[in-house]
Amino acid sequence: MGFFDRISEGLSRSRQKFTEQMNVLLDRGPNLDDDFWDDLEETLILADMGGSAASQVVENLRDEATRKALPDAYAVLDRLNDELASTFATTEADPFGGDAACVLFVGINGAGKTTTVGKLAKEGADAGRKVILGSADTFRAAAIEQLEEWSRRANVPIVERKRGSDPASVCYDTIERAEADGCDLVLIDTAGRLHTSDDLMRELQKVVNVVRKRSKAPVYTVLVIDATTGQNGLSQARVFDKALDLDGVIVTKLDGTAKGGIALAVSHELGLPIYKIGVGEGLGDLKDFDAHDFARALVGEFDEREAR
Ligand SMILES: Nc1nc2c(ncn2[C@@H]2O[C@H](COP(=O)(O)OP(=O)(O)OP(=O)(O)O)[C@@H](O)[C@H]2O)c(=O)[nH]1
């Protein structure tokens, strides 16, 4: 299955929900009155795209329509994909682009951090990079074993300490070993924690600070969000970003959720790029993020001529 088809299949539930709302909107005819714009904004919000992104998208389309570039609702919906795509935050710096990088994965319990680290280890090793894993999730014994298993699958080394060790010191050791062995991609898994737990967030700040001070390679702090948590993902992102000054986001479990719009909400509101998306549990189920493909998979393709 091709790349776009895989994302498209994953986002089919999000798309179905969106299309149903869109059909209700179009049943009223193609006039661009106030009700149309209000309903379009509501449709975007219902698709979990967040109030900030939804109002920006509607404002831009409304501006274009006023300039007569978009004469009716069919033309507006035909433009929607491009407008959504351009609402995602972008960046030049890509931790997985090939340059040396030290990447810390943070997020709530079960978001998919360990699985994502494992998939990235394999992807990096297959691309000929010298990868090393750090298991700074010293809280859950199973997490250490899980990461060990991924290190075997990807055939990359792992630095680990016994359960209960200080996570910051595991990071320190991982970076030392990476530098000694000439590794150019350091992937560090951290323990899942609720963003509402102040103590655990402070512990994570310490871990991030140690890594930022110690690593010679650029450090990226990446939030892993489970798409199925919907708007809660936006609350998580706000708190993690405030505490850690995030660099970007990876959105997992986009397969089978109707809440794929959360990727846009987080990226737009916090100005964070989406580095990758997870569309399944398997090794090959982590995809590069492409805003146009994502928007197309999220809302479907509206054919203006067909609708007329
Ligand atoms: N369907 C689906 N499942 C995923 C995806 N990514 C991860 N998972 C599953 O989500 C579950 C939790 O993943 P983990 O990687 O253990 O999550 P974690 O964030 O490391 O969890 P903690 O260590 O508790 O913080 C596992 O069953 C994974 O297989 C994805 O993109 N799609």
Task: Describe the 3D structure.
Residues 99-256 form the AAA+ ATPase domain. Part of the signal recognition particle protein translocation system, which is composed of SRP and FtsY. It is an enzyme of class 3 (hydrolase). It catalyses: GTP + H2O = GDP + phosphate + H(+). It is found in: Cell membrane; Cytoplasm. The protein has 308 residues and is of the alpha/beta class. 53% of the residues lie in helices and 13% in strands. It is built from 13 helices and eight strands. The protein has helices at residues 3-10, 12-26, 34-46, 51-66, 73-87, 113-126, 141-154, 167-181, 198-214, 231-244, 262-270, 291-299, 304-307; strands at 101-106, 131-136, 158-159, 185-190, 219-226, 248-252, 274-278, 286-288. An eight-stranded mixed beta sheet has the order 3-2-4-1-5-6-7-8, with helices on both faces. Helix 10 links the parallel strand 5 and strand 6. Helix 1 (3-10) crosses helix 12, helix 2 packs antiparallel against helix 3 and helix 3 runs antiparallel to helix 4 (51-66). The longest helix is centred in the C-terminal third of the chain and has 17 residues, at 198-214. It is elongated, with a radius of gyration of 21 Å. It starts with a helix and ends with a helix. 48% of the residues are buried. The mean pLDDT is 92. Guanosine-5'-triphosphate binds at residues 107, 109-115, 137, 140, 143, 192, 252-253, 255, 278-281, 285.
